[in-house]
Structure formats: structure tokens, C-alpha cells
Amino acid sequence: MxxxxxxxxxxxxxxxxxxxxxxxxxxxxxxxxxxxxxNLNLPRAGVIGAAGMTFSQLQDAIKKExxxxxxxxxxxxxxxxxxxxxxxxxxxxxxxxxxxVSSLATLVNAxxxxxxxxxxxxMRNIHVRRNGEIVTTFDMxxxxxxxxxxxxxxxxxxxxxxxxxxxxxxxxxxxxxxPGLYEIKERVRLGExxxxxxxxxxxxxxxxxxxxxxxxxxxxTLLEGDLxxxxxxxxxxxxxQDADIVRLFPVARSxxxxxxxxxxxTPGEYAIEPGVTKLSEVxxxxxxxxxxxxxxxxxxxxxxxxxxxxxxxxxxxLEKALGGDPxxxxxxxxxxxxxxxxxxxxxxxxxxxxxxxxxYPGVYTVKKGETLSDLIERAGGYTDRAFLPGAIFTxxxxxxxxxxxxxxxVQRLERELYTASAAGTASSLTAEDARLVELETQQKxxxxxxxxxxxxxxxxxxxxxxxxxxxxxxxxxxxxxxGDRLHIPREAQTVNVAGNVLNPSSFIYEPYTTHQDYxxxxxxxxxxxDRGRVYVLKAGGSAMRVGNLKKPPYLERGGTxxxxxxxxxxxxLRMTRDIVDIVYKTAISAAVVVDxxx
Length: 598
Known about the structure:
The protein is of the alpha+beta class. The protein is built from twelve helices and 30 strands. The protein has a five-stranded mixed beta sheet, with helices on one face. A hairpin with a 2-residue loop joins strand 8 and strand 9. Helix 9 (396-427) packs antiparallel against helix 10 (431-452) and helix 10 (431-452) runs parallel beside helix 12 (577-597). The radius of gyration is 45 Å and the shape is elongated.
């Protein structure tokens, strides 16, 4: 505000700084401030009373005063540092209080620093009181909507800015340029309100206007009208009231479209003129056919009859249609669906990943019918460190199928659990029996939660051969699909022991040893180990339970021994063993596959 030029009508007051420059017969430059008494002490010329003068009057007074002592000189008088004034913002202001502002500040400046009206404050009823009298009433709408600042007066020391209570409010929603709540004063017509909201948008429907009105503070009513039919006279005469909500609607969407899908540049909906626009025109609008497009298309059309819709499927030769053949370039109707076919069995290419101990690991593109052995040969075959029994092959379609199976199994077991729980509670003879049934249900629910969190890996157990040509014409020479992954690890040197043992760890593989030997190396069974349900997971992905075998098999390289926790029992009620087996087997297999890829 201090950089704003001072006009000739600026009123001088105590604290203002005056800059005086003289040259000619006498020279000098001085910065002089108006003192508290309103006097200005002019160097070499005496004292004059400056307070209350306008800037223009002060310039004349200073020149006149110096003319009494000197002749043949030039004079320049400008304003330096301006004084500050104290004003008060009260009423329904966002931050009411006393504010120190520049002497050039106006009403709008004070409203800005105080945050303006609060939620209950008026934007159209703002008074400035000076010496007990209202000197101006300011309407912010004049400035915000029309840019009119004629009533934005300059403030004086001690001015009080009072923001009154908000007046009647009317809402405008829908297709206007500035939807919102508007404060009205006196009578405002519907047309004036729409103008306040910026007028109708380009997509506004003039055929409907809706006014929601509260009658006698008791009930709501709706008034509907047509802006075109009501005319300008209605807009000028119909007055809105406090709490009215005026809604404008968008134009109705035209349904005269046809949709095209398939191998075209930009498939989607296109506007047509029913019975006139031809199929070839829509194809051209869609950017034409892609290179993989077939010369065949299918047009689906729904015909409305009094007995119900009748659906037709029309087969079209695109080559003839684009060539102008009238039998194939038929005119389209509303909501026609055009499906452009691709050439038979079209697939750009599929990508698969091979990693680990092959000479050239990476991501390969494969053609239709290419198999696992072909991929290994393209990757240069195995390295000398390849451990074929531990190969891990995953497939996305298998993973999705496995995950669906897990989810369906969880849902089935959950239904069985709650059915059994309800039956057990109903047949309980004592409170203790009911409590035991509840504890067992909670225990089974926790096991189901574990199963619910299990994520399928899509692993397929395979058997590789060296050289890869021996794999051909065997069931394990799978035809590759998009997203397949094959990982061939290095030859394993260890056997893992996990679960409830004293020291879960990995141990050096020794031929002709069983799972018991490795459990002993791990410190033996834990206190809560379930010895009868020990599992061995082979490097190839298959698992078997060995806990109750009299002659357990020897462990293979890369195998994992899993000793599960013993399932806690509640009284004579035991966990369903099927759930336990599923949880262990599924979780174990998933964990090992993930570890192998990590």
C-alpha cells in the first residue's frame, strides 16, 4: 500500500512524512514529518499547520511559505512514509478486531485483512461509521459481479466497519456458470438471479426450470416451468424468496448413436442420422480398419415391436462395404452395434520368462504351439550347475484357478463351521458345554483366517530332462502361454528344517538320511510339535506326510522338513483334520515357491 501514488485529495495527518526539494537561488532536500499537533516544521521557512489539508493544498502552502523568504527558485513536494491509522472491523466478520492499516487503505483493504464476512455475515449490508454517522453502505456483490468500486471509500482514523447479518439466501444449482448460494435484498426476479449466477451454460436445457420453495415454514413445494414458454416477461416478474432453490438442467443426450468395436483405430460411440449414415462412414470416422482386421463384421440391431424387442444379427463383408456395395454398406439405425472381427486366431505374441541356470536367461516371445523344451533350447540349454529336480514352473491361469479353489473352499468350510457351531450350541445342556463349543468355534475361525490369507502361486510340478530334446513328446513338455515363468535353480547343497523344532535352520545335505536325522540336528521336536503330522516338501514341489511312516524315505537335495504345531484341543472336541491338512499343505507350498523366486 505504501507504493501507491498519493492523489491530490489525500488528507494530511500526524505521522505523514513530507519530502521537500529546493533548487535555484536556494538549494536543499529535507524529509519532514507532521508532528502530533499537526504542524510541519519547514527548514528555513518556519512552521505551518498541515493536518487537515489535502496534499494539493499542502503543496501550495509550502510554496507560498518559501516565497516569503526566497525568489527565483523551484520547489518539489512529495509524500514519503505514510502514517498508519487504526480502524475497527466488527459484527459478523471472520476475524473481528482492531486493525492498523495504511492511511491509503480503503474499505475493501480492511475487509481483506479481516477475512471478510463469516458464514452468518452479509456481503450486501456493510456499513462504515465515522463519528457516529454512517458514511457509506457497501455491497460486495457490486464489486464481485460487476467490478463496481464506486462506494469503496478511503478509511479515516477511528472508522468502524460493521458487517450485518446475512439476508435472505437463494440457491442456484445445475447448469449455470456460477452455481451457489446468493444473498438477495428487496425483490429479485428469476431472470436477475440467473444473471447473478453468470447465466446459463452452453449445455443448459431451456425447456425446464425447477424451483423448490418452503411454504409458510411448514412444507416444501416444487414449481416447474419452461423458460422458452414462460418467456422473458415471466423471468422479469417472478420473484424468488428466501430459501428457494432454483435448478437448471442439462440438455437431453441424443441417443442417435451407433457403437463400433474391434480392430479399428478409435472404437466407441458415433453420432449417426438413422437411415442415412452408412456403415462405411462410421468405419472411416473410427480411423479405418487396423491391419489385423478381418474382412468380416457383424452388425447387431434391435427392432422395437409391440410384442417386445427383436434382435437381428447381420453379417457384413467389409471389403464390399468399403467398396460401395449397397448390400453390405447398409444404412445404420439408432443403437446399432458393429463388431469388426480380427483375423482367425490372431495373437500378436506371448512373452514368457526363463531364469536361473540356463545360458541365456531373460524374457522371450513365443509363437503359437511353442513348448517348454523349445524355450529351453532357445535359452541355450542348461548350465553345468543346473538342478533340474528343483525347477519351478508357474502359470498365471493355474494361479487364478488355484486362488478360486482356495476361496471356494474357505466359503464352504465357513458355512460348515457355523452350521456345526449353531447345532452344538443348541444341543448344549449346560453353560460349560456352550462355552466349550464357542471356544472351539473361535479356534476354527482363526485357522480359517490363516487359510483366507493364503495366496496361490500357480506352480505346476514338472520334470525336466537333460538334454531338453528328451523332454519332447512327454506330458511335461507343456505348450507355453502368456506370462509363464520357469526358474531353474543351482544344485541344492542343503536341507531345510522349519516349524516347531528347537533350532529351525538349514543343514548340509547328506545322502541316505531321513527327516528324523535332520530333526535331531535341529535339536529335536519342540514342546508343542505334532510329530504325527510332519511333512516333507521335495525340491520339485510335491509334498508328502512322513510322520507315521515306519520306514520313511531318504531326503533329496533341496528338500524341506516341516514340523507343524500341535493343534490345541478343547475338552473332548477336536479341530476338523481336513482344515488342518489344507492349511499346512497350501501354506507350505506357497511359502517355498515364493522363497525360490526371491
